[in-house]
């Protein structure tokens, strides 16, 4: 009876048997929030029945769940029409097809974490950005396939964006960051550590307006020559 009334289920970093998890899968039917981040033991066979019974999920976190496949997202993509928060960081099983299906069937996502999802293409990320124009928080950290094309698309479509993590996206340049500075009026935070092609030439447009995770580079002092 207790589990049947639950609206929030958080089992982060837990190890449990399929039989134990089946207790939740058979009794929880009113979940709004499901957080299973770092649950390495869970598989599609355990998760899918739970998702099929909870169509009211608004927040789903499967980050670092290494034993799943893209198939587990099917019930969420098709039936969770109020999904607003989706966190899939370090899910190497996430595919381009799954992202495209999300963009096709979902409409309300505002907070998305796709950090280190190395199997998805930049083209599907572009489709994703164009669809979810109300997105406020987007994490693309560690995705080396991300280039200035993504930043140009974000600057055109993501007018509600407040926080963007591009750490380790080593292919982006000053041109893309400049587009963000000029066309994302609500941006409050930009993380760009490891982006070696981004310099102070573009970052200075954001300083004093946006939180950056890189300090300004001190100018090299001009040597003073004293005649002896």
TrEMBL record:
Residues annotated as domain F-box/LRR-repeat protein 15-like leucin rich repeat: 77-206
SMART domains: LRR_CC (SM00367)
InterPro entries assigned to the protein according to its UniProt record, in alphabetical order: F-box_LRR-repeat (IPR050648), FBXL15_LRR (IPR057207), Leu-rich_rpt (IPR001611), Leu-rich_rpt_Cys-con_subtyp (IPR006553), LRR_dom_sf (IPR032675)
A single Gene Ontology CC term: cytoplasm
Pfam families: DUF7885, LRR_6
SUPFAM superfamilies tied to this protein: RNI-like
Superkingdom of origin organism: Eukaryota
Alphabetical keyword list: Ubl conjugation pathway
Protein name (database record): F-box/LRR-repeat protein 15
Organism of origin: Papilio machaon
Taxonomic lineage of the native organism: Eukaryota, Metazoa, Ecdysozoa, Arthropoda, Hexapoda
């Amino acid at each position: 009876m207790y589990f049947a009334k639950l609206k929030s289920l958080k089992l982060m970093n837990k190890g449990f048997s399929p039989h134990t998890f089946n207790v939740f899968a058979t009794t929880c039917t009113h979940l709004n929030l499901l957080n299973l981040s770092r649950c390495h033991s869970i598989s599609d066979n355990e998760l899918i029945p739970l998702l099929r019974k909870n169509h009211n999920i608004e927040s789903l976190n499967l980050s670092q769940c290494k034993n799943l496949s893209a198939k587990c997202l099917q019930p969420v993509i098709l039936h969770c029409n109020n999904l607003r928060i989706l966190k899939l960081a370090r899910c190497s099983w996430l595919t381009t097809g799954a992202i495209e299906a999300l963009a096709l069937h979902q409409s309300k996502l505002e907070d998305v974490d796709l950090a280190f999802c190395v199997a998805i293409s930049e083209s599907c990320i572009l489709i994703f950005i164009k669809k979810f124009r109300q997105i406020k928080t987007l994490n693309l950290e560690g995705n080396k396939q991300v280039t200035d094309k993504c930043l140009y698309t974000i600057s055109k479509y993501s007018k509600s964006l407040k926080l963007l993590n591009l750490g380790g996206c080593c292919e982006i340049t000053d041109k893309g960051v400049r587009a963000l500075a000029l066309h994302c009026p609500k941006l409050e935070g930009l993380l760009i550590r490891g982006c070696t092609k981004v310099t102070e030439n573009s970052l200075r447009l954001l300083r004093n307006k946006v939180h950056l995770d890189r300090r300004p580079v001190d100018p090299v002092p001009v040597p003073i020559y004293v005649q002896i």
